[in-house]
Automatic annotation (TrEMBL):
UniProt family annotation: Belongs to the class-II aminoacyl-tRNA synthetase family.
GO BP term, example: asparaginyl-tRNA aminoacylation
InterPro entries attached to this UniProt entry: Aa-tRNA-synt_II, aa-tRNA-synth_II, aa-tRNA-synth_II/BPL/LPL, Asn-tRNA-ligase, Asp/Asn-tRNA-synth_IIb, NA-bd_OB-fold, NA-bd_OB_tRNA
Pfam family name, one: tRNA-synt_2
Name of the protein: Asparagine--tRNA ligase
The organism's taxonomic lineage, starting at the top: Bacteria, Pseudomonadati, Nitrospirota, Nitrospiria, Nitrospirales
Gene Ontology CC annotations of this record: cytoplasm
CDD domains (UniProt xref): AsxRS_core
Reaction(s) catalysed by this chain's protein: tRNA(Asn) + L-asparagine + ATP = L-asparaginyl-tRNA(Asn) + AMP + diphosphate + H(+)
Record's subunit section: Homodimer.
Record GO terms (molecular function): asparagine-tRNA ligase activity; ATP binding; nucleic acid binding
NCBIfam families hit by this protein: asnS, PRK03932.1, PRK05159.1
Cellular compartment(s): Cytoplasm
Amino acid sequence: MSVMYIDEAAAHAGQEVTIRGWLRSRRDKGKLHFLIVRDGTGDIQAVVSKATVGDAQFARSAELTQESSLVLTGTLRQDARAPGGYELDVLRLDVLQVAESFPIQPKEHGTGFLMEHRHLWLRSSRQHAVLRIRHEIIRACRNFFDDRGFTLVDAPIFTPNACEGTTTLFQTQYFDETAYLTQSGQLYSEATAAAFGKVYCFGPTFRAEKSKTRRHLMEFWMVEPEVAFAQLPDMMDLAEQFLAHIVAAVLKSRRAELLLLERDPAKLERVTAPFPRITYEEAIDILQRKGNPAKPGDDFGADDETILSKEFDRPVIVHRYPAALKAFYMETDPERPDLALCMDVLAPEGYGEIIGGGQRIHSHEKLLGRIREHHLPVEAFQWYLDLRRFGSVPHAGFGMGIERAVAWICGLDHVRETIPFPRMLYRLYP
């Protein structure tokens, strides 16, 4: 016999196999017990017959509770009526542990209770589906850039300075000096792009923003490509190809998980390039026509992004925001110096911004002036200024938050379900 994972059932039909897992549920019918067992790769129905396993093992089977751990040996057979299309006729049952009463039962639980038991909530079929899709999105991100000649060059988590000021950063003591938990790997990616041409970094980022909206986490993961010699139009092209690739990968490999989440695949099938592109000024016009009080010079909040994104059936790229709204490093439009060569990609169905980026200042003098205008410490950015002294070229990039992308693709109401252990304003446990 062979030890088998449940998702390998098709290769073992008719064979005697061993499955190791946990009990999801049990249904009794006379001298038969029907066990739904999960092993992390899938679910399978196992049939325990008193006539086959004997009195002792049948009695042991009757003691099993939700999440009890067990090892089952039996004959695997195809059955279209069974979960997953296969069923195990049990010959032997070994119980590793009869679990205590499981806190999460098949009934309605409050969000606070579920978050307090997040370490156990992860075992539910819904959370399993979400995190399987997250895994697929991450794999698709890496494949997209790897297949296009990008080099993965990770950025540090401890940084001596901030990308956009220190008001929303977590500060920590780094021996005898102050350090911050990174809010973006972008500045370091600019350095590696000057060495490798096309790069991306992928890792955790942190924002000490005291926000409780459904789109915010204190700790999240971000993938950030950076390309030497690229300009804003190049990034808009790259971003739409990137998102279309990710959505196609999920539709191909995780359609069953989308259906379990009751996510309509038809809405995702519309996510193909090219995406609509509108300027910031055109976005203001749309908002005003919709009765929104936005006026030129205003930054967009979640409500504004929701209105804009609902105007389109696929992501929309909003570009050339007022320079005053953007970070110190953002290049300005040579024809309109009051505008930044930047973009935000807004996901449809009201999910808002999932990608932000643009073209970086490549002039040493201009960047130095912007650092001083923003009252940032020049000495902390000296290495960043060096990039403009030794072979500076136009360059551009963007960042995509994994959790917001997962929330959109899965159709979730809140990003707290998109990461195994979310860190929110009032949530640091478990």
